């Protein structure tokens, strides 16, 4: 009994040693009757297609990066804004000549110090005032032939803004100057012309 166990143990050790030797050999000796292992990897046309797609992706990334840098350079993008448009703490600052193709909604427009604010248009310049409901309450139109104001009351004030020099509404026209000079002939379109002067 003891000799049979020793023989089995010796045979087991020999088999294990043989498997280790076969596994450690670079040639990978195959046992008779065992199928050849399937090669793992990408070979042939699949490998060429994979390299082509990697190259195409690399070229696309380079072109995309070049176009992005070109757009940033042409549009003059900076940390503060884009082109002549600068974003500041007080709001948006626009320098130079600019064109607005769509309506512009702002709270306040200021020019630079010691520089005039010029609004130009091929046809006319119209400034609209609206209430909270969006209804038109006042309109000033500067055209090529006339200046038209549409509002409930029109006033012209002095330089300090305290005295009303001229005011007009639907009921009356008032002149607040000390002197009134008429250099043209007064023509009345009605049958009677009543002029009332009050001091």
Question: What does the model show?
Answer:
- Helices cover 27% and strands 19% of the residues.
- The protein contains 2 helices and 9 strands.
- A hairpin with a 4-residue loop joins strand 5 and strand 6.
- 0% of the residues are buried.
- The mean pLDDT is 77.
What radius of gyration results from the CA coordinates? 46 Å
The biggest sheet amounts to:
3 strands, antiparallel
Mean pLDDT: 77
In terms of DSSP E residues, the strand content is 15-25%
Low-confidence stretches: none
- Neighbour order of strands in the largest sheet: 1-2-3
Structural class, please? alpha+beta
Q: What's the tally of helices? A: 2
Ends apart, CA distance between termini: 148 Å
Rough shape? Answer: rod-shaped
Question: How many strands in all?
Answer: 9
Helicity, in percent?
25-40%
Query: What is the H/E string?
Result: HHEEEEEEEEE
């Amino acid at each position: 009994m003891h000799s049979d166990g020793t023989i089995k143990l010796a045979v087991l050790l020999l088999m294990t040693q043989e498997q280790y030797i076969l596994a450690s050999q670079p040639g990978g000796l195959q046992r008779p009757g065992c199928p050849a292992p399937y090669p793992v990897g990408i070979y042939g046309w699949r490998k060429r297609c994979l390299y082509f797609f990697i190259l195409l992706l690399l070229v696309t990334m380079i072109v995309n990066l070049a176009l992005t840098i070109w757009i940033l350079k042409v549009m003059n993008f900076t940390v503060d804004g884009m082109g002549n448009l600068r974003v500041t703490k007080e709001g948006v600052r626009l320098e130079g000549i600019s064109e607005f193709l769509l309506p512009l909604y702002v709270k306040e427009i200021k020019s630079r110090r010691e520089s005039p604010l010029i609004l130009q248009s091929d046809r006319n310049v119209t400034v609209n005032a609206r209430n909270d409901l969006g209804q038109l309450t006042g309109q000033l139109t500067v055209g090529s032939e006339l200046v038209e104001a549409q509002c409930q009351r029109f006033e012209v004030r002095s330089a300090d803004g305290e005295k009303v020099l001229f005011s007009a509404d639907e009921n009356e026209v008032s002149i607040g100057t000390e002197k009134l000079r008429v250099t043209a002939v007064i023509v009345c379109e009605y049958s009677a012309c009543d002029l009332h002067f009050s001091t």
